[in-house]
């Protein structure tokens, strides 16, 4: 690489114990919802990162023993030698592209519920498991600690056999025994593993020493450490005990991978943590204490920020989980000076929600994520066009923009027509709501690409009807006309008993609010039967504008789905701070001119709440009129995509646009086969 590249510093090799990273780009461990259940898919995800230039590619937390059973979630598993071949798929894929492979060994203590194995749950002291399971952990005695050390050592040896170059000891996210022993609020022991910090760190020290002893001749030993629990004086703090832990262990690990706990703080969304590099304040002193390399994270997508973090001595290696998911090719793009081609993470945590749902990873920005093995999709490569066909895409939301961009990348001449004055569709509208500004990156990335292509024509203020489509004479048409929010109160919880909406009721929808319409003066009820972010951000907007807001939902939590994106408790806390009157477990019964009636989902008992207007966030209706009118038009291709086909997440719309472009002029039978590709249990294997 030329020294003229202003980011040359990021491409220096870094020695990590006995191994050397080819540059400073380090994909820290992250889950994929694949793990031991879908090892081929997982290996393909990791291999893609290596191909994209990351010097180190880590897997995800990997259970070392059946007493750390995270079922039903498919994390990594290395209980015995039979798990080695599946993990070798990953190390082979990573090594094929010249990167180092890292494995994050873990015993999850009381974070494991052992639902599959029914093994006893282990913890430093007596305590419940950390979910709502009615189950308790048992305090480990000295024999248990000796066993744990043996399991960890054996797993490290198996990791080496599987081909890993870096083996982790993991004390992070409030999810691991090593960390649980360190935390005074989880460790009430009176023996040499409890009491003073030195005693509480003893187990981690032993695990680090054992791992070095087992595999340190050829593998590096990394230590992932949550330096701050972000609970103030109620938990570990970076400047106090966090710093003291670094001082106690200083040069024992070959690498410090430092972050904050819990997972919701580490993987904070842009809605609640808008600044990229938000963990720097917690990291800055680590390098002054240890001589070993330090890696840190914080949604790092900007090469300038990466450079300044290295120059300022905050980190040696640039850590990334989500940025590497949104764009596995960040290192290559920086190396080749293609900075404006970086597909920046928007911090929405749809990737995180996949893991929380136990399904393969998906990403709003990168529709190929999770489809590398199943569909053979590559984020940077797409099949060239098969003919000189011209294509018309109608609707410039996320589905239409992605479809246009990928068709153009294939080489087709594409015309995109958008009815409104701006491209972006729902993303443009939603990103103007409180806390969602970073979501505009979905549009910015695609427009930046499209504007540089000579084979694309973009038209705004161009609402098409069937007649104009016929006049254009383009015979291949993708309709991405989106959806709108319904105003009649019908939603998943009101289908059996429709709400009574009187003619004098003042009803608004999210579309009105996003257009800038404000409710009349007086209290406003927001009724949420959608359960992800939108009703919550509208409540925030209106409460901040001075409205008295009442928030009703049939769920028992505000924005209940946002549990999966790690935001739910923050959303509810913010609403409480803003003085929103929260009414959970309430279904919409009637909307009248001066009041709304809501009914308890359990007892049916109705309550009347005086309010001047209501914002109904219930369901969306698909915009299919144009599509329907084109059905008899004799077009060679007519495809309905995105929210117009199935209203869902922005990630779903981007995926639909991408898939449509890939499948264009591809035999339908081949495309249909994609749905069925999966990893099937091999019955030929000895089950014992
Ligand atoms: P998706 O998420 O599927 O991309 P959006 O609702 O975000 O859907 O975007 C759909 C876009 O389609 C909107 O920007 C809308 O203005 C546009 N649109 C709807 N009907 C027409 C039409 N007849 N002609 C052109 N554009 C249209
Ligand atoms: Fe970033 Fe969202 Fe993609 Fe996750 S899903 S990597 S948060 S853009």
Strand content: 15-25%
Major beta-sheet overview: 8 strands, parallel, barrel
- Overall number of strands: 30
Return the average pLDDT rounded to an integer: 96
Unreliably modeled segments: none
CATH architecture of the largest domain: Alpha-Beta Barrel
What is the third-level CATH name, the topology of the largest domain?
TIM Barrel
Shape call: globular
Count of spatially separate domains: 3
Instruction: Describe the strand arrangement of the main beta sheet, using strand numbers.
Output: 3-4-6-10-11-12-13-14
Distance between the termini: 52 Å
Counting helices, strands and paired strands, the structural category is alpha/beta
Description:
The protein is α/β, with parallel strands linked by helices and 688 residues long. The protein has 3 domains: 8-325, Aldolase class I (TIM Barrel, Alpha-Beta Barrel); 390-482 and 623-676, NAD(P)-binding Rossmann-like Domain (Rossmann fold), CATH 3.40.50.720; 485-621, FAD/NAD(P)-binding domain (3-Layer(bba) Sandwich). The chain has 24 helices and 30 strands. Strands 3-4-6-10-11-12-13-14 form an 8-stranded parallel barrel, surrounded by 6 helices. Strands 17-16-15-18-30 form a 5-stranded parallel β-sheet. A hairpin with a 7-residue loop joins strand 8 and strand 9 (136-139). The radius of gyration is 27 Å and the shape is globular. The protein starts with 13 loop residues before the first strand and ends in a 15-residue tail after the last helix. It binds adenosine-5'-diphosphate and iron/sulfur cluster (SF4).
């Amino acid at each position: 690489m030329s020294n003229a590249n202003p980011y040359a510093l990021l491409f220096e090799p870094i020695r990590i114990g006995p191994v050397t990273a080819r540059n400073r780009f380090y994909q820290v461990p992250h889950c994929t919802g694949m793990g031991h259940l879908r090892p081929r898919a997982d290996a393909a995800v990791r291999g893609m990162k290596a191909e994209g230039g990351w010097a180190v590619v880590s897997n995800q937390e990997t259970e070392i023993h059946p007493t750390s059973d995270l079922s039903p979630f498919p994390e990594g598993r290395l209980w015995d030698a039979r798990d080695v071949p599946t993990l070798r798929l990953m190390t082979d894929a990573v090594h094929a592209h010249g990167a180092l492979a890292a494995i994050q060994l873990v015993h999850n203590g009381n974070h494991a519920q052992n639902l599959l194995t029914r093994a006893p749950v282990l913890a430093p002291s007596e305590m419940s498991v950390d979910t709502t399971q009615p189950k308790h952990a048992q305090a480990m005695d000295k024999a248990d600690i000796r066993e744990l050390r043996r399991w960890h050592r054996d797993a490290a040896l198996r990791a080496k056999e599987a081909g890993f170059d870096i083996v982790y000891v993991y004390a992070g996210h409030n999810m691991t025994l090593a960390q649980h022993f360190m935390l005074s609020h989880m460790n009430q022991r009176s023996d040499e593993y409890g009491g003073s910090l030195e005693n509480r760190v003893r187990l981690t020290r032993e695990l680090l020493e054992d791992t070095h002893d087992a595999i340190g001749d050829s593998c590096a030993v990394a230590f992932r450490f949550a330096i701050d629990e972000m609970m103030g004086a109620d938990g570990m703090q970076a400047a106090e005990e966090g710093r003291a832990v670094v001082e106690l262990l200083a040069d024992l690990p070959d690498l410090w991978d430092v972050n904050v706990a819990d997972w919701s703080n580490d993987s904070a969304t842009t809605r609640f943590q808008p600044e990229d590099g938000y963990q720097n304040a917690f990291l800055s002193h680590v390098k002054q204490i240890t001589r070993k390399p330090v890696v840190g994270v914080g949604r790092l997508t900007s090469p300038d920020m990466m450079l300044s973090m290295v120059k300022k001595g905050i980190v040696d290696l640039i850590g990334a989980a989500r940025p590497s998911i949104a764009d596995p090719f960040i290192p290559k793009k920086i190396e080749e000076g293609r900075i404006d081609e970086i597909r920046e993470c928007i911090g929405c945590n749809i990737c995180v929600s996949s893991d929380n749902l136990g399904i393969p990873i998906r990403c709003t920005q990168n529709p190929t994520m999770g489809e590398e093995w199943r569909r053979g999709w590559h984020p940077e490569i797409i099949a060239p066009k098969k003919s000189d066909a011209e294509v018309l895409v109608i609707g410039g939301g996320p589905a239409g923009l992605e479809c246009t961009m990928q068709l153009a990348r294939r080489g087709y001449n594409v015309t995109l027509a958008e009815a409104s004055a701006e491209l972006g569709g729902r993303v443009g509208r939603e990103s103007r709501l409180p806390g969602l500004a970073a979501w505009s990156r979905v549009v910015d990335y695609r427009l930046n690409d499209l504007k540089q292509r000579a084979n694309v024509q973009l038209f705004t203020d161009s609402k098409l009807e069937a007649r104009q489509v016929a006049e254009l004479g383009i015979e291949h048409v993708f309709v991405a006309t989106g959806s709108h929010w319904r105003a009649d109160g019908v939603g998943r919880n009101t289908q059996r008993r429709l709400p009574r909406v009187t003619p004098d009721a003042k009803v608004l929808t999210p579309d009105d609010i996003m257009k800038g319409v404000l409710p009349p003066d007086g209290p406003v009820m927001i009724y949420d039967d959608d359960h992800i972010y939108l009703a919550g951000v509208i409540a925030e907007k209106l409460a901040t504008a001075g409205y008295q807001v009442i928030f009703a939902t049939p769920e028992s939590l505000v924005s209940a789905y946002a549990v999966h994106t790690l935001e739910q408790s923050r959303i509810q806390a913010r609403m409480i701070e803003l003085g929103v009157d929260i009414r959970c477990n309430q279904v919409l019964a009637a909307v009248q001119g001066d009041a709304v009636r809501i009914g308890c989902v359990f007892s049916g008992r109705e309550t009347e709440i005086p309010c001047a207007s209501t914002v109904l966030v219930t369901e969306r209706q698909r915009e299919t009129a144009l599509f329907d009118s084109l059905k008899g038009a004799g077009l060679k291709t007519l495809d309905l995509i995105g929210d117009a086909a199935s209203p869902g997440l922005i990630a779903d719309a981007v995926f639909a646009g991408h898939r449509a472009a890939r499948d264009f002029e591809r035999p339908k039978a081949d495309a249909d086969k994609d749905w069925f590709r999966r990893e099937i249990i091999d019955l030929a294997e000895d089950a014992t």
